[in-house]
Protein: Arginine transport ATP-binding protein ArtM
Amino acid sequence: MTYTSPMPVVDGRIYEGSSLELKDLTMAYGPVDVLRGVSLTVAPGTTTCVIGPSGSGKSTMLRGINRLHEPKSGDVLIHGESALQVKPDVLRSRIGLVFQHFNLFPDHTALENVALALRNVKRMSKGESRRIAHQRLAEVGLAERTDHRPRDLSGGQQQRVAIARALAMEPEVMLFDEVTSALDPELVKGVLNLLAGLGQRGMTMLVVTHEMKFARRAADQVVFMDEGKIVEVGTPEQIFDAPKSERLQRFLSEVL
Ligand SMILES: Nc1ncnc2c1ncn2[C@@H]1O[C@H](COP(=O)(O)OP(=O)(O)OP(=O)(O)O)[C@@H](O)[C@H]1O
Ligand SMILES: [Mg+2]
Structure:
């Protein structure tokens, strides 16, 4: 294994996750509705995993929550407050989104990738931004890799830099979209352990994933989507051991 243990430094609930609520959220690309009335509650400090076939609207839902793509109707409440009333750049520091591809600056070190975001978004001084960046990188198990550039880090380590960068904004909610699907198999576990650790330490998380074992282990709630709708919501035991709908039964028989 080429990754270091992701959770070496800090213990306890260090994050203050907020609640997240979707209220009848509808989203479209042009005339085509791809999210069709999605309602969902994620309690503060809990982890919800979203599963479902390709094209079912999982990424679109995440993009709507932090308004990378504007919803057509409905609402998103963060800590009870409408996300549609919050300026998009403020919203994106309150709701962190991490993708499959990490989008790091290739010519900057891990430390500078995180520190630059703090200077640009939080208007921090150089010294302060580097101090906080060090802490956040330590939280994701990269205390010893802060001076490496992305090309000198494994894919899993690069993804952890991207996660540290999002955490540095002190988000109230974190959204993850298939963050392990571009990684070599041996690196997947380290990133999933990191995600599970964030959940245990109080972050509110919505995690789109194909990793069913992870969903079973780390989720408080699992959501199954198909064709732009939520078909079933339940505990991991309800979803994986006693799926009600024929659609979910078929999906699980294909992926498990
Ligand atoms: N930029 C876009 N313009 C037009 N249609 C889009 C766009 N992005 C996604 N779609 C369509 O919207 C639907 C939902 O796509 P979405 O990416 O949300 O699915 P997904 O559940 O994330 O799938 P996957 O598991 O493959 O990532 C699909 O039919 C897709 O083709
Ligand atoms: Mg997707």
